[in-house]
Specification:
Length: 212
């Protein structure tokens, strides 16, 4: 069944791989599934045709036959569940990997997104300077906790899985802030993930569209 995803016609990040279609491309590359990409403009994302697939008018989406999905966690989980290579066979290990997928989005990503809000949407508010250290410290706390659990391991729980794909995708958004470099094991974790051939292919594919 042919797979089609959606991505920004022109990503605001200019091809740094921060738009969330990169996660989906990466998962598809990891499991060796070809896919087509439908590029959408900001205006088109809010049109009924796209909203019928993505109720919040965002990217990415995933279509496969009659199935249409949105939300990167759900899409990456679906890919990992449908094709071998991204989730362990053992039931308990699989449940733990799924737990980390949820954690990446529900616990690790929210404070990181706050930083984006603080910088982009609230950077010019009179209280922005006062708020920023609080936002940064909340991220540091999460990173400290995650680094403690990761320890010296290459991946969060055994072999590389969809959990690492999601965790690294969330963490790499921090690179520009310098926060990642405060945690060398996490910086190395993200670098290890980005060194995977599947990530490189996904990154190159989005760059080909978004390079300034
Ligand atoms: N929780 C959603 C977030 C999706 C999201 O924020 N997508 C961004 C691109 S990375 C978007 O479409 N932004 C444009 C908009 O919200 O209008 C997911 O993980 O898929």
């Amino acid at each position: 069944m042919a797979i089609t995803i959606t991505a920004f016609e022109k990503s605001p990040d200019g091809g740094r791989g921060l738009a969330r279609d990169t996660r989906v491309r990466w998962a598809l590359e990891e499991v060796g599934q070809p896919y087509a990409v439908r590029l959408v403009s900001f205006a088109a994302m809010k049109e009924p045709e796209h909203v019928a697939i993505h109720p919040f008018g965002q990217i990415p989406t995933y279509e496969e036959g009659g199935l249409a999905l949105f939300e990167t966690g759900a899409i990456v989980f679906h890919i990992a569940n449908r094709f071998p290579g991204l989730l362990p066979e053992d039931a308990d290990a699989r449940a733990r990997a799924i737990t980390w997928i949820f954690a990446s989005l529900n616990t690790v990503e929210p404070p990181i997104l706050e930083l984006q809000t603080a910088k982009i949407l609230e950077g010019n508010k009179p209280w922005a300077g006062e708020r920023m250290p609080l936002v940064m410290d909340r991220i540091r706390e999460r990173l400290k906790q995650f680094a403690a659990r990761l320890g010296d391991a290459d991946w969060i729980d055994g072999d590389f899985s969809a959990a690492d794909l999601m965790l690294a995708s969330v963490l790499l958004r921090l690179r520009a802030s310098g926060l990642l470099d405060e945690f060398p094991t996490l910086a190395a974790y993200v670098a290890r993930a980005e060194a995977r051939p599947a990530y490189k292919r996904a990154f190159a594919a989005q760059l080909a569209i978004n390079a300034p």
